[in-house]
Amino acid sequence: MAEKAKKVKKQENAIQRYFRETSGELRKVSWPTWPEARRLTGLVLLVMVTMGLFLAGVDFMAGELLDLVLGL
Q1: What are the extents of the domains in the chain?
Q2: Nearest to 59 by CA among 51, 71, 69
Q3: End-to-end alpha carbon distance in the chain
Q4: pLDDT one digit per residue (tens) for the chain, 72 residues
Q5: Distance (Å) of CA 10 to CA 7, 13, 28, 56
Q6: Is 61 within 8 Å of 68 (Cβ atoms)?
Q7: Is residue 40 within 8 Å of residue 32, measured between CB atoms?
Q8: pTM (2 decimals)?
Q9: Residue 11 — φ and ψ, nearest 5°?
């Protein structure tokens, strides 16, 4: 009877624990619907293009200003 009380519990592998916990967390995620995903993707693309144009304008103006100051 003492042997039953001393059962050795097998140590769980760290990799197995990682995947088990990760899949458990992914089940809790509130995933967007397809219309939401499309709308948000469009919004991200719009912001990226807008910021790209803004930064291109700032770069161009900074280059022109440096050319003017340095007389190149």
Answers
A1: 44-72
A2: 51
A3: 93
A4: 555 555 656 777 889 999 999 999 999 999 999 999 999 999 999 999 999 999 999 999 999 999 999 987
A5: 9, 9, 28, 59
A6: no
A7: yes
A8: 0.59
A9: -70, 130
